[in-house]
Design a protein that fits this description.
five-stranded parallel sheet, alpha/beta, nine-stranded mixed sheet, globular
Length: about 350
């Protein structure tokens, strides 16, 4: 059985970034195996295409030009994203298209396996990766770029509308009727997008359960206050007008404590949870003990590393506020700093 030097599990934006940076670092393409069941840019490409981004086009373009192995400037076909104003935001699908093209280019340069990784075992200083359908693989080092899924609260009722549908202005129409009462938990960027969609679709009654005031990103000279948690772009403008300004007639906001949930939730026909994301279930990892990761460098165990929304960098901003950095360019920036460490931290 061939021993690969690197295995990448996951082909969303973070997995794409890892593949590009490993090639840039001089790792031979035949020494990299890339594992994903779809190779369709993960949830970013399959679920969130019609969602408005809170990232400026400039940051997306920086990501696409960050790896020499991408050769985006010289080889990429025409994409709508390339013609947009760098200070604008855009639907995520406009970034998903070039990322899908990059995926296909990278797959030609390394071994790609369309399958699920189900179990990872450290044995004789090598990671043995058990797949769902195909023979196991062995790698000296493994990177988990497995993504995350929306969180849920465990109330017995009412019916749940999946967040990926609620954040899509067109698909949400298939899940709720104008005469229904819809509950929305959360006050994040995702929650504001959902509330806006419901209001614009003229839902009869919307109840927003919240626990904290809204935060807005503040653009300073060389950094952004509340960069990872604050509202940006058109979503921020809408929230200032319709949440912190004058509430639309059909929208109610109530503090999310037990008393209010017990009173208001039974009045709702359906519920949407926009309360953040949890790391997607890990492949079973054996022989290393309790699993966690170092938020400063992504190390999980010798030769086992995490990146992306599942394993974001933790960092203090200039005011001393601790944030977990989530975003495509942030993943790439993080890799540029930690990959030299990973290359030396094998079992």
């Amino acid at each position: 059985m061939k021993l690969y030097q690197w295995a990448i599990i996951g082909a969303g934006p973070a997995g794409i970034a890892v593949a590009g940076k490993l090639l840039d670092a001089g790792v031979k393409s035949e020494d990299i195996v890339w594992i994903d069941p779809h190779f369709a840019v993960g949830d970013f490409g399959m679920l969130w295409r019609n969602v408005p981004s809170n990232t400026k086009v400039d940051r997306f373009m920086q990501f696409l030009h960050a790896c020499q192995s991408f050769d985006y400037k010289n080889s990429a076909p025409h994409f709508t994203l390339n013609q947009m104003d760098l200070d604008d935001t855009c639907p995520l699908g406009l970034m998903a298209d070039p990322l899908l093209w990059l995926t296909e280019q990278l797959k030609k340069k390394m071994v790609s396996v369309e399958d699920y990784a189900e179990r990872i075992t450290l044995n004789d200083r090598q990671w043995h990766i058990q797949l769902r359908k195909q023979p196991a693989l062995i790698a000296k080092n493994t990177v988990l770029a497995i993504g995350a899924e929306p969180k849920h609260l465990h109330y017995s009722m009412p019916e749940i509308i999946p967040l990926q549908h609620a954040m899509d202005g067109e698909r949400i129409q298939q899940h709720c009727h104008k005469d229904e009462t819809i509950a929305v938990f959360g006050s994040s960027h995702s929650a504001m997008l959902v509330l806006r969609n419901l209001v614009e679709n003229k839902i009869k009654r919307i109840i927003n359960f919240y626990r904290s005031p809204l935060e807005y990103a503040v653009y300073l000279d060389d950094w952004i206050l509340f960069d990872d948690t604050g509202l940006k772009g058109s979503t921020a403008e809408w929230a200032r007008s319709c949440i912190d300004g004058k509430l639309p007639a059909q929208l109610e906001r109530v503090y999310s404590n037990d008393e209010n949930v017990e009173h208001f939730l039974p009045q709702c026909d359906k519920v949407i949870y926009a309360i953040g994301f949890d790391r997607r279930t890990l492949p079973v990892v054996e022989n290393v003990g309790h699993l966690t990761y170092n938020e400063a460098c992504g190390i999980i165990a010798p030769g086992l590393f995490g990146v992306g929304i599942a394993f974001p960098e933790g960092k203090y901003n200039p005011l001393g506020i601790y944030e977990r950095r989530v975003g495509l360019w942030k993943f790439m920036d993080y890799l540029q700093r930690v990959l030299p460490i990973w290359l030396k931290y094998s079992p």
